[in-house]
Amino acid sequence: MHSEKIDHIGIAVQNLDEAQPFWEEVLGLHFEPREHVEDQRVVVAMGHLGESHIELLEPTGPESPIAKFLEKRGSGIHHLCVKVDDIEEALRRLKDKGMRLIDEQPRAGAAGKRIAFVHPKSTSGVLLELSEG
Ligand code: ZN
């Protein structure tokens, strides 16, 4: 398994229009156009930060996992995403080592990338996203 870099840090926000200006105008990040990721019921705003990104996540409805997170903890860091070269191999390896996976198979993330989540129980309490490509 080869982990290449931190692809992004995901931040849960109540409202992108309120959250994004800090990152965009104050910190000077360049943002991609927003994207609705149906599968996770979120709207994503991805800001470039060097080799990595800041991913702002706004829920599209109360059933979104991000809405549940916001309800429990308020806005803040939601997950860390590591880029891997082969997501199937990474998932197989984690499973072999007895790690708890949220996604046993890759699914569609933002920008058409294949992603999968690893349970915080196996990662020192951090929700970990793996992303390929
Ligand atoms: Zn993410």
Q: Care to count the β-strands? A: 9
What is the strand content? 35-45%
**Portion of residues within helices:** 10-25%
Average pLDDT for all residues: 95
Bound ions, cofactors and other small molecules, one mention each? zinc ion
The CATH architecture term is: Roll
- Reported by name, the CATH topology is 2,3-Dihydroxybiphenyl 1,2-Dioxygenase, domain 1
State the distance separating the first and last CA atoms. 14 Å
From the alpha-carbon coordinates, what is the Rg to the nearest angstrom?
A: 15 Å
Total DSSP helices? 3
Order of helices and strands: EHEEEEHEHEEE
Note poorly predicted spans.
none
* Number of domain units: 1
Main CATH class: Alpha Beta
Largest sheet: 9 strands, mixed
**SS class:** alpha+beta
**Shape verdict:** globular
CATH superfamily: 2,3-Dihydroxybiphenyl 1,2-Dioxygenase, domain 1
Task: Write out key terms for the chains shown.
single chain; 133 residues; alpha+beta; 2,3-Dihydroxybiphenyl 1,2-Dioxygenase, domain 1; nine-stranded mixed beta sheet; 23% helix; binds zinc ion
